[in-house]
């Protein structure tokens, strides 16, 4: 079992990357595991006391943790579906314009250039009853303006803010996938008298299936772990009504000083992500097998 | 060619080193201050004075370090817990001393400090009887009101009758308009309701008040002077949590009554300091309980052209226990991990002297000074006279509000009280949850 010179060279070249991963990922992960199993505060960060799985029990029994999970799940699913739906529609309908005038793509991409925390601050201003343009014009035209950020409306306001910022990302992916479909395929379908709807439904969308799955996945992950813009706009919300899982972890860690519980919650979040990703990989493998068999 | 490049590199390095060294060599004490406001401006001015003193050694010169206000205390906590020596002196606040005390060292400011600030103000920087910092700025609340609106109300009999009618309907008692300096909380609430369009369509402004009801710890500090004037405290003498009290119930219910009646903007559950200022400067608000630091903005014709000239301030209204005004101090204390403790202590001692306090105040800071000291700067800073007067007469600190769990107590209250105001929890549920959390936090 002697390794070839190429293998040795490969290992040598990989060594810096492995060292980087060990230093920057393994060490924090190890500290995370120790803290998750410890009774630890800011005063005892260097001398944590191991308490087993107690922190996990406390977190799992905390109704706020489940409320935060539910918020993140709803937020992640809804924003991913809406962003991808809108992004797909825009990619298809604007394709002729964007293909002809490339600069319009830059214009559509603009919201993505703003840092999410800045978006939160920006909408605090935009939606303010006395300083914001939106309530001003609504009051001017209709005599009243809704309370965008009260406990009943904050969730939907946050969804709209997230969708406005990240639909361009989904649009970009779909635009690239859409223009990659060879023109000959569409021409051949048209010669066979396929309608535009049929071309879209039977040819274009199936060919964009992988991109749609990836876009939904990325947008769901981003929505699920949302922090910056929600924190900037509403914080945890009245009574914790806009507390995402990330905000729950942040609040427990920094505000509550419950480091063990906060880290345990983050470990649970990591494990849940792992299960979802593993499940998605298994599902994909099964679908591939079925397709091959067919 | 290689030799030439090496020489060039060495030359550039030497140039950079000579440019950087004077700054490093002359600044041995690093102070981490509160960024971005009058506190930063004042501290810069005071440090300039200190560094220019003939007896300030080069090794004692002070360099300032500022980072963003957002998450300041979280970052500071992480730095202190990690044993960072990137700064020798750091910011502390009354409500966070207990949390940071394990990572800081007490300082002896000398006997003159009490003559400059007075004992109660020095106590805002004490934890377990030890002095942890120099009180550089004091924060409390003013009741801001529109003089023009109140004067018009007081001069109009028909308006007075309408006022009494509204008070009877919403508060269950007939009240007559009063001078704001004589207000109790019911008078304030009646005034707020009278000046609310949703309650009184003839009101010249849209809302009678603007309440800061966001789930944010600082908003609890603004709110708690109301229950405090009814006798509220966090704990009794035995340490038992007493938040589920008649006093807290009265305060919480009054806020909810005003919110439900539309006397404060609909989005008040997302309002904090800047939103309140923006609402006030719009000219559509009649009264606001707000931090003293806002006075500079709200009473300045350049920043509040629509209302500055008609804006006046009094201490918060009274309750059965009299007038109460939350106070907390911002100050500077010594990092336990500092590598320049002697120089740092010398600067802190100077900062606690009369000359330093006057220089700090003159440059825009808000120190609470003893009466004979503040008299020396009253012509330049008349607001500081009122600050000292209110702090001395009405200032209070809740039991446990300097403990290690104080910040978390405010957080817990913010969460539970806003849940009640938003209608997500009943008052009983919110107070029971607050009691549970506070008991847990304050027993540690």
TrEMBL record, chain A:
This is Sugar ABC transporter permease. Coiled coil: none annotated. Its main location: membrane. GO terms for cellular component: plasma membrane. It comes from Aliirhizobium smilacinae. CDD domains: TM_PBP2. It is a multi-pass membrane protein. The keyword Transport applies. Residues 69-280 form the ABC transmembrane type-1 domain. Keywords: Cell membrane, Membrane, Transmembrane, Transmembrane helix, Transport. It is found in: Cell membrane. It comes from the Bacteria. Signal peptide: none annotated. The chain crosses the membrane at residues 12-37, 65-93, 105-126, 154-178, 230-250, 262-283. GO terms for biological process: transmembrane transport.
From TrEMBL, chain B:
It is found in: Periplasm. InterPro entries: Bact_solute-bd_prot1, SBP. Its main location: periplasm. Keywords: Cell membrane, Lipoprotein, Membrane, Palmitate, Periplasm, Signal. SUPFAM superfamilies: Periplasmic binding protein-like II. The keyword Metal-binding does not apply. Residues 1-27 form the signal peptide. GO terms for cellular component: periplasmic space. The keyword Signal applies. It comes from the Bacteria. It holds the Pfam family SBP_bac_1. Belongs to the bacterial solute-binding protein 1 family. This is Extracellular solute-binding protein. It comes from Aliirhizobium smilacinae.
